[in-house]
Hints:
Chain A is mainly beta. Chain A is about 15% helix and about 40% strand. Chain B has 2 helices and 14 strands; from the N terminus they run βββββαββββββββαβ. Helix content of chain B is about 5%, strand content about 55%.
Amino acid sequence: MSTPYPRPWEPGQQPWKPWQIEDSEQTWRSLGAIAHGPVLLAEVPGIAIGLRCLFAHPDRLTAWLVARADAAFIPQVLPARSEAEAAVQSALWEHWPGQPNDPLVHAFVDHVPQRLVLGERNDTYNGHGVLRLSCAVRVLGMPTDDRLGFEVSWGPALAPTTTTLHLPGLRQIAASAVPFVEDRPSPPAT
Amino acid sequence: MSSSFDDGLGAVAHGPCVLSAGPGIGIGLRCVFAYPDGLLLSVEVKAVGQAARDADESRIHFGSRSGHRHVPRLPISSPRLSVPAPAAGLRPDGQLWLRLEPHHDSRNRTSRGAGGEDPGTPAYVQDLDLWWPTVPEDARLPVEAGWPELGAPMTTTVLALRNLDDLAEKVVRLA
């Protein structure tokens, strides 16, 4: 099992506790700004992973990811894993945050792998012979080179595939994130 | 039922904007994705403090461990989002507004600034995806949104949509 992250039990590493990570007030209260539109991140016949949209917040990014697998390919993307393997992967929160058989997603900020945090949504539905996943993940940190890398894979069927998004003017885009929760909002314009 | 947004990445037709806001509560549009047969609206509702308490007390939910039904303290309510129907109708402005029913609706009670003994400030987050099976010919979509029971007034915003041409080619297929 490969991972770009240091293991929590390695010397000097802190356990990864995403549930303790809290957004800054400015970011929590913002809707974000669109930093990148839809793009296909990886595809093989019957399986695809895509980015619906990338939002920039004052100090981080949100990626809305979707994945799709035809029923005929589900046995390939959802292979039987040992309980021990699943337990380790769950404990490390390395997968599309959620189930151990979900796609594996890594994001690279300034070429450094960033752990992902499950955002506000994570839904799965299975019907018409198709498995669909949708997930908003928080990418902690802001690239200084206006680039964001993704590496996605899904079981043995979809090998790791890298995509680099170019995000010109990212800092300015992030600074324009729309605030929408205020203690004393101004009344709507009439 | 499978819609085209299930199997494709729609074109970005509108970015984030505030649809309705009250003290400590906001209803925001994150994005409109356009498909040849309709629009997918991604909406976020967030509240803090008393508005978050009220949001949580305005719905029935189930205890995570006990499975017991939580009886709301306030009258049951939820955020409302509507778009005008094509036909003339009931409202003084001559339009019948159709309430959009979400096909995805997740809500969470959470907190901000908790640590140690401090429970922090209550917070509320709700995510909604709404499907409107029409692409307006004039690229304008009026949306009425609000949660008056929680102080977010019903407010009409006319969205000026862009990027609507050649949608059949623009939508990135996932299948």
